[in-house]
Amino acid sequence: MSISEERLNYEKVDQELDRIQDLTQEDRRKADELAYSLYRMAIRFGTWDPLEIDLTEDKKHFAEMDKQKRDYLIHFCTGFWNAEENVALQFCPWVMVAPSTYQQAFLSTQLVEEFKHTEFFEHYFKEVIGVERENKVQNIVHDSLDPRGKQLIQAIDAGPVEREAAMVEGLVHYQGVIEGVQAMVGYDVFEAVWGQYDLLPGLKEGFKNIKRDEGRHVGFGLRMLKQFAKKPEHAERIKKIYTEYLPAMLTRYDQQVIVNGEEVETPIEVQGKDRIQNMFDRRLKDVLGQTV
Ligand SMILES: [Fe+2]
Ligand SMILES: [Fe+2]
């Protein structure tokens, strides 16, 4: 296939992903059909290599950037690296609890992609940032992933009702909150602080690829939640878990930013709490047709 044909295909893939994530548009496919088509999309178009992205310009930009933005980048990328690594390590139960071959197949592509995203940030720190990640970045939404995973494993041997309930809760926590709100806000923050000023093209390229992968993860999660929300008991459950995590998501942007032992002022463009609140409202409206 020629390069221009391949590019055209990616354009189609991106349009399809936008459509899947836009819950105002109807999609009548059942869970297995949707999972199969996303699985095929991952096999065919999810093949980028984190080590192939050119980081030459990023090294120059990083060296020349003003101190506040450089230090904030260390904080910001530490947050992403930690999050990607943590979800990768914890994700197996989400694969196992899914009820069919192609739902598990799709979620397995997600598992390997989370490791790939982890590798991208590890590589970026080594090549561009040149220091260890910070150890003071908090993300308390992640603290309960471990018990959530254990709950999912227990539900595998329980009856179908309990298994489905656990899966719904797992989808809200992971695809709904972590990927659907926190990570999506992270991409917007990157664009606002660095991307719009044409800074860090390698990181921008990495985020473009990661966002495409995440489009499949979030698209699947949100479509599944919207289907589950037709049952009133699941709608209640979805609302409860989303709402439970809202304060923790907002706190993420309230924490003191410490880099190399010094406090860093948050760049004005970040606007993290407003972005979280807006994305949260949009997700709830999309999935449940209402805000809290
Ligand atoms: Fe990821
Ligand atoms: Fe993901």
From TrEMBL:
InterPro entries: Ferritin-like_SF (IPR009078), RNR-like (IPR012348), RNR_small_fam (IPR000358). Its EC number is 1.17.4.1. NCBIfam families: PRK08326.1-3. GO terms for biological process: deoxyribonucleotide biosynthetic process. It is an enzyme of class 1 (oxidoreductase). One of its GO terms (molecular function) is ribonucleoside-diphosphate reductase activity, thioredoxin disulfide as acceptor. Its cofactor is Fe cation. It comes from Jeotgalibacillus soli. Transmembrane segments: none annotated. This is Ribonucleoside-diphosphate reductase. It comes from the Bacteria. Keywords: Oxidoreductase. SUPFAM superfamilies: Ferritin-like.
